[in-house]
Amino acid sequence: MSGPLAGIRVVDMTTVAMGPYATQIMGDMGADVIKVESPEGDVFRAAAPMRNPRMGAAFLNLNRNKRSIILDLKNQDDMAVMLGLLKTADVFVSNTRPQALRRLDLDFESLLRLNPRLIACGTYGFSDADHCS
């Protein structure tokens, strides 16, 4: 792709609307966005209207210009894949609760040790926990 963010890799571990919208804009601007979903998938997949099961129109729109992968981060092999993605990423965006990220060793301090140049952003609706490092 071309655009001002061409050559930038974004690992997107967000769900519903706010995070996917932010990373969708990055994808629209040329970034290589990789959406990481749990085996259950983003809950927004089920938001109507939809022609096919779990492919809601809003979900599809918010996740255009992205590649996707299903990872169970409680599985050691899947976590190794995630860490490999993060080692090569420029940006990590998540709306997973900070405590859950800490349990998975995906908190900012752990990410900094893994990839010192990584920009890590947390986006949380209805909370004062917004952060970007």
What are the SSEs and their pairings?
Elements: E1 9-13, H1 18-28, E2 32-37, H2 57-62, E3 66-70, H3 76-87, E4 91-94, H4 98-103, H5 108-114, E5 119-122, E6 131-132
Parallel strand pairs: 1-2, 1-4, 2-3, 4-5
Antiparallel strand pairs: 5-6
What structural keywords apply?
single chain; 133 residues; alpha/beta; Rossmann fold; 6-stranded mixed β-sheet; 5 helices; 6 strands; globular
Number of strands: 6
Domain tally? 1
Global morphology: globular
Low-confidence parts, pLDDT < 50 over ≥5 residues? none
Which fold name fills CATH's third level, the topology?
Answer: Rossmann fold
Task: Report helical residue fraction.
Answer: 25-40%
Distance between the termini: 26 Å
Our count of helices gives 5
User: Which superfamily, in CATH terms, is the homologous superfamily?
Assistant: Crotonobetainyl-coa:carnitine coa-transferase, domain 1
Mean of pLDDT? 91
CATH architectural category: 3-Layer(aba) Sandwich
Largest sheet: 6 strands, mixed
Beta-strand fraction estimate? 15-25%
Rg calculated over all Cα atoms? 14 Å
Please identify the top-level CATH class: Alpha Beta
Give the spatial strand order of the biggest sheet: 3-2-1-4-5-6
Instruction: Give the helix/strand class.
Output: alpha/beta
Q: Helices and strands, in N-to-C order?
A: EHEHEHEHHEE
